[in-house]
Amino acid sequence: PEIGPEHIDFGPDGKLYTGVLSGAVLHMNPDGSALETVVNTGGRPLGFDFDANGRLVIADALRGLLALESDGRVRVLANSVGGDPIRYADAVTVAADGRMVLTDASQRMSPQRYGTFNAALFDIIEQSCTGRVLEFDPAANSTRIIATGLCFPNGVALTADEQSLIVAETGTYRV
Fold it and tell me: pTM of the full predicted structure?
């Protein structure tokens, strides 16, 4: 059995989606029936969203920002910003114009080295506050830093009018 669902959401097809510890993204009917693996990222999918075309966009703690293409191929959209690696991609939301906002929860604690749970725990205990919020612009194929100095940001959402960004900062227990 699969363990460790991190994020759940309904897709444009009406199915419920989640990412799990094995690297799989699963979907099922709303009643829990017909559980299927959509894709295995080869990493640890944490957050995801769907773009305007229904493409699944995934924040993968081990691989960065990914997209599931229509041919079933997983493509890396961004795994660094200005040459600095995205070390702990955690959450993502897609704006109406296609730009993607994601959290990079820690610049100190590597999920590759410690595992996602331990890296999160160590980062929060240490309180180094090296997390950041990034924006990937697919039209320009570029990533930029929006905010730094955050204590394990692992949730992100745009308001309905997309004029404000809401960030859940686990290390400080605040939004």
Answer: 0.95
